[in-house]
Each structure stands twice: as structure tokens, then as C-alpha cells.
Amino acid sequence: MSGKVNIAEAPPGIEGPGFFATTLDAVVGLGRKNSIWPLPFATSCCGIEFMSTMSSHYDLARFGSERLSFTPRQSDLLMVMGTIAKKMGPVLRQVYEQMAEPKWVIAVGACASSGGIFDTYSVLQGIDKIIPVDVYVPGCPPRPEQIIDGVMRIQDLIGNESLRRRNSQEYKDLMDKYMIK
Ligand code: SF4
Q: Which helix (H) or strand (E) holds 19?
């Protein structure tokens, strides 16, 4: 790593001597996107790549995400990594439901995204069959750089999300589709 310090970019706004004005959405988005608390739901090999992503060489702390949360109520990003057996489906869904809004989901790797090579009766053919997914990371397994790229795509979504989105009809329709209250 270069040792360069990453500083969050200011959102677009109006600047003048001694003042800077922007929208509430942009300020909240800036704070949220640089302090994501991920919940790693790792069941198999992709989880090992995530361990590497967290460790010193790749260091997810550079993105403000070093605070992993193993309790759904204190996390806002569900990272699903590994093969999800159909029997595990209800557990994953319960974890998702216990997370407070606003929350986001990344499907890391082929298994979480689509069942991967396990096209079989016992494996869920993608977690989006049971919970909504915001970003898919391809690969079997994806390299840590790809996982970081997935987190950066989530940061883009979070930074640009309207504060009203979770109350919108579109979002309610999405939750209705998954029968999530
Ligand atoms: S996508 Fe590949 S590496 Fe990841 S959990 Fe599935 S089989 Fe393992």
C-alpha cells in the first residue's frame, strides 16, 4: 500500500469565503458511505477471500468499514459469501429482517449470486430468491480487489441515495415482492 491517506471527497455544493452549502441528502450520504458496518454472512470459500480483504494487505478499514458486526441490529451492509443451502435460506432471511433500515446487500461470488456450480436441489440458486440484492460481485472466488470494488459500488449507491427512498412506493413494492414487512 502506498501509505497515501484517503480523504472523503466533499459532495457537490456552493462554496464561498467561509461557507459551503449542500443538500441534507448529500451530507448524510457522505457520512453513511464512509462508515459502513458490514455483517459478513460467510458459509464457505468466498468467506476466506473476505478474510483477506479485511487483513492488512487489502485493509477494508481504508473505506471506513473495519468495524464488522456480527449482530444484525448493529450493521447496515449484509455481505453474503458462499454457498447458501435451501435449509439456510430462512436463517439468512431472518438476519436480513433483523437489520434496521437503511440496509444494503452484496452477493459476493457466484454461489451467493446464482448458486454457482451447485445447480442442485439443495442449493439456493441465488440469494435474490429470498432477499433483495443491491450489488453482485462475480467470480469463484472473487479476488479481494473485486470484493473491494463491490463495496465501492455500494458506497456509490449509499452516497447517492435519497433520504426519502425508503418511504417511496417503489421501495414498498420491492419489499412487498419479497413479502417483507
Ligand atoms: S463462488 Fe466459488 S469460491 Fe465462492 S463459495 Fe462458491 S464455490 Fe466457493
A: strand 19-21
Residue 124, ligand 1, Cβ within 6 A: no
Tell me the best of 50, 53, 83 to mutate to test the pocket of ligand 1, counting ligand atoms within 8 Å of each CB and taking the most.
83
Model pTM score: 0.92
Closest CA to 65 of 150, 165, 161: 150
Q: Whose CA is nearest to atom 6 of ligand 1?
A: 111
pLDDT digit string, tens, across residues 67-112: 999 999 999 999 999 999 999 999 999 999 999 999 999 999 999 9
Give the model confidence (pLDDT) of 49-68 as tens digits. 999 999 999 999 999 998 99
Is 88 within 8 Å of 142 (Cβ atoms)? no
Please report the domains of the chain, with CATH numbers, ordered by start residue.
Answer: 34-177 (3.40.50.12280)
Residue nearest to atom 2 of ligand 1 (CA): 140
Q: How far is the CA of 48 from the centre of ligand 1 (A)?
A: 10
**Residue nearest to ligand 1 atom 3, measured at CA:** 141
Rounded to 5 degrees, φ, ψ at 129 are: -75, -25
